[in-house]
Amino acid sequence: MKHASETTRHAPEAHATAAPRHRRRSRTRVSLFHGSTADVRRKLDRLVDYARDHRRALILTHDNPDPDSLASGVALAWLLQRLAGVEAVVAYGGIVGRAENRALIRVLKLPVVPLSRVVFDDYDLIAMVDTQPDQGNHSLPTAHFPDVVIDHHPEQPETRMAAVADVGRDTGATSTVVTDYLRASRLTVPSPIATALFYGIKSDTRDLERERSPEDIAAYLWLFPQVDTQALSSIEHPRLPEDYFRMFHTAVEKAVVFDGAVLCDLGRVYYPDLVAEVADRFLSMGETKWSLAYGQYEGNLYFSLRIRDRRKNAGKLIREVIEERGGSAGGHGSMAGARLPVKGLSRPARQKMLREVQERFLEEFGVATRKSRKLV
Ligand SMILES: [Mn+2]
Q: pLDDT digits over 106-117, tens only?
């Protein structure tokens, strides 16, 4: 696929909309595009050239997918269908639990399926979004390796073996990377896809506050005119099940407050990302500098860590603590999550391990006094 150069890029837009007002606007948009345009186009060309030789693509998100991975997956599928004529299916491992994420799929009618319905041999191209092969948070069987990896997390060694990889650009969201491809393609983006990507960036960066880069802001602004704001509102303010309120009751009851830190053992949770919601919520309480929430879902313990202190790296920290115990972890500076298999572990063994993990975190955070109090 050929792209026009930066200077001729406006020409078709200017013809289509003769009014100078529009021409001015398109110029403004380009100036907001901080990423290297030629570089993005090269990457898109490479992706499309590679995909063209294939028939059916499977696009995999990380397990228990968040809006960023769902949006990136669906947008990539659309792009591959349009530009490379490849039939593409988006699949996820785990469950979509969070009410907002369920609403995202329902309201925008996003074509995503659980991985359990996928027969791998039906596909001759596998792509992975918002995660990477070495990352333990996806369900790609080890017999398979992705051809394409697109992710905003730091590059992992195995990713270099993928035929096409766009990773570690240090944007706040994978949706930003895919939005850049859409911009470079100059296709008209359907509103549901623009809305999903917008929400992907918005939620991963917490309204452009956390881990955001100039590229995220540019993508966000570029998408906005194409966003279905009513759909977006019903995604961000969904109906919540009674279970959700019961779980928050438990969270408040179980929260233990240390000097600047909140720890919360939720026991059993009805979906894994709930620990992230709880950790987020407690980070906003009073003078809390970091929060850790954890809970069990099926055979795994899920941990979620949130930090305000910019000198600390949540991703690195949670990896150190959880990986040495046989779990998998990932995340960035201020937010991270981990999963630790506890199947077959007796209740006392589980309790002992949790105490150790908790102690490690308190140590790492230099919580001077182990004095704690219950929140209620
Ligand atoms: Mn992400």
A: 999 999 999 999
Q: CA–CA separation, 205 vs 217, rounded Å? A: 10
Q: What is the pLDDT of residues 189-202, one digit of tens each?
A: 999 999 999 999 99
pTM of the model as a whole = 0.85
d(CA 271, ligand 1 centre) in Å: 19
Fold of 32-236: inorganic pyrophosphatase (n-terminal core) (3.90.1640)
Segments making up each domain of the chain, as ranges: 32-236, 242-374
How far is CA 342 from each of CA 45, 214, 316, 347, rounded to the nearest angstrom?
44, 41, 22, 10
**154 token code pair:** 């730091």
| Residue 334 region by backbone torsions, left for phi larger than 0, else alpha for psi between -120 and 50, else beta | alpha
- Alpha carbons 296 and 241: distance in angstroms, whole number: 19
CA-based diameter of the chain, in Å? Answer: 73
Q: Determine the distance from the C-alpha atom of residue 361 to the mean position of all C-alpha atoms in its chain, rounded to a whole number.
A: 24
User: What is the distance between the alpha carbons of residues 123 and 142, in angstroms, rounded to a whole number?
Assistant: 16
CATH number of 242-374: 3.10.310.40
Calpha distance 61→74 (Å, rounded) = 10
- The tokens for 5 are 């150069």
Distance of CA 12 from the midpoint of ligand 1 (Å): 33
Separation of CA 250 and ligand 1 centre (Å): 28
Look at strands 300-307 and 87-92 and give their pairing: unpaired
Distance 172 CA to ligand 1 centre (A): 7
